[in-house]
Amino acid sequence: MCTPTTSAREDQLRGKWERIDRDISKKVGIYYLYLYGRRLLPGSSSDVITGLRISADDKPESTWTSVPESLRTGVWPRMPSLYLQYELTPQSDILAARKMDTKGDAGSLEPITEIDVIYGGNETKALPGYTKIPRLVTGGSDDDRSIGTGYGKSKKGPRVGSNLAYRKQQVTSPKTPVLRFSTQGNFTILQVADLHFSVGPGECRDMDPLREEECRRLGADVYSLAWLETALDEVKPDLVVLTGDQLNGQETSWDARSTMLKWAPLLYERGVPWTSIFGNHDGEKSTDLDQEKQMGESSLSDLFLVDCIN
């Protein structure tokens, strides 16, 4: 019903419409919301999309084009309008830019090749090689049902939020480094257990009053991420071993990829090799990926994954 209209001529020139199978409205409403895009056929001379953004203004500057209808029309009609905007570039300009670069890279003029949808707040990062569009489609400051940090004045409702991300060029993952003792004969392993991350902000539990106050102010997962970041920087481990319950389960980590993209970037941005085993919450049926698929997703979201420990 919602597939964009097209013609045989348009399909030939610009490719057929493809649906990005990540529901932007997942778990936050009764309606589905999907994006569609065209992938140019080989030999096509049509202009290509080199920029993507979200704006409240439906009349952008001349180099940008706004999709006529708001992302929120019919789905969240009471919220302010938000428009998906794209920038088109002639292929001749891209080829010329590549010729000018010693590595054949057109930089910002490289065309967008993939689009992803990420669930969660600002602490959820994009896959390697992807650029996250900062403005939230839902769950942001202009959403009167945003879940915020899950506590206090920031909590308005149940919506955890969703972002779009895009990729221009695929990142080549480096080989997993050989694990070796240092010249001083040391090899440091950091064991991390029971992170219990959710798609949303998480829940502060079993804490003393002082720490719980800070946890509620920041949000539980943000609080845990700050601890993990400090531990990585102070310990400087040669290997990180995650020993179960990386996901909170209990119907809160329903999108495993977005949940993993909270903690995995802290590791691959530091180039730290890691491996994991699973706990009972990692394999709950309320999570969309079983343990085998989570390991496959890890190969996408981390550059230094050591073989899984059984």
Notes on the protein architecture:
Mean pLDDT is 88; it is low at 301-310. The chain folds into two domains: 8-167, Vitelline Membrane Outer Layer Protein I, subunit A (Aligned Prism); 189-301, 4-Layer Sandwich (Purple Acid Phosphatase, chain A, domain 2), CATH 3.60.21.10. Helix 5 (256-268) links the parallel strand 10 and strand 11 (274-277). The chain has helices at residues 8-14, 91-100, 209-218, 220-235, 256-268, 291-301, and strands at 17-20, 35-38, 48-55, 64-66, 83-89, 114-119, 130-132, 162-167, 189-192, 239-243, 274-277. Helix 3 (209-218) packs across helix 4 and helix 5 crosses helix 6. With 310 residues, it is of the alpha+beta class.
SSE map:
Layout: H1 8-14, E1 17-20, E2 35-38, E3 48-55, E4 64-66, E5 83-89, H2 91-100, E6 114-119, E7 130-132, E8 162-167, E9 189-192, H3 209-218, H4 220-235, E10 239-243, H5 256-268, E11 274-277, H6 291-301
Parallel strand pairs: 9-10, 10-11
Antiparallel strand pairs: 1-2, 3-5, 4-5, 6-8, 7-8
